[in-house]
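Anyone opening a protein record will find just a pair of labelled lines. A complete record is shown below as an example.
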Amino acid sequence: MTVALHVPRTASNEGVIEAARKALGAALIDAREHVGEIMLIVKRDEIVSVLKALRDTPGLEYQQLMEIAGVDYPDRAERFDVNYCLLSLTKNRRIKVKVMTDEQTPVPSVTGLWPVAGWLEREVFDMYGVPFSGNPDLRRILTDYGFEGFPQRKDFPLTGHVELRYSEAEKRVVYEPVQLPQDFRTFDFLMPWEGPEYRLPGDEKATAEAAGAPSPAPAPNAPSALNPKTAAKTPKTTDAPSDTGGGKPADGQATKEARKPRAAKAESEVSKPGRTPAKASVQSKAKTGAKAPPGPRHSPGNRKGKA
């Protein structure tokens, strides 16, 4: 019985390193195989000829450039790795080619071999600041036009250097220094893997006790006296009602609302849609418990006289 497998066959990597050594010659620095994928470390200035040989040499035939990725090692003199990931469409196998560079030395562009390399090189330039000589359109592609720095470098701060917002007053996007709208606050919580050091009401039901045995003594740290290691010394609250944690605009609005006189607040309540002044006065009197003044009483004689 023959079972048809719908999985594409992958050619073996056997003999690839030897064929690469023969095709690349002195441009090859090192070659190794790791987790089923071959990696070639080559000279930076020879990257164009190396990739061309890997694409066009019979037996290798890595026709497609899949990705260009950067890696940052700040402690090295040449801190950046530029990795080219190639795919062989005819043999269904992959290979990775690596070059090293620093912040100033450019890497030759391979846009002449694969036009898609233009966008991939722009990504590495945008994230790491690696320059590529020969790229016809080397500019940022992922970050904003006014972005400062390179986000994927290990020494780049997580909050960035500047933040942007749309200014309604200036009718444009403005850049400002990074300001966190709320202070970092520390709270003393129990660690989930340590568990509480006190007994809650009902915990005794979880333990199997012999009939007639005395109830277990309460733990030294009862709910009324929490563990001093985990209990907060002073509850953290805001200093004033206007401290909303949303920044100066929100605090200013909260301050204005707090300073409004009561009459203005009552007028604002009356001005709400669907509420008339009479209804509002009745509702306010109902809330305060005041009774409505008695109206004029008509006796039977008065009604006859009017009739």
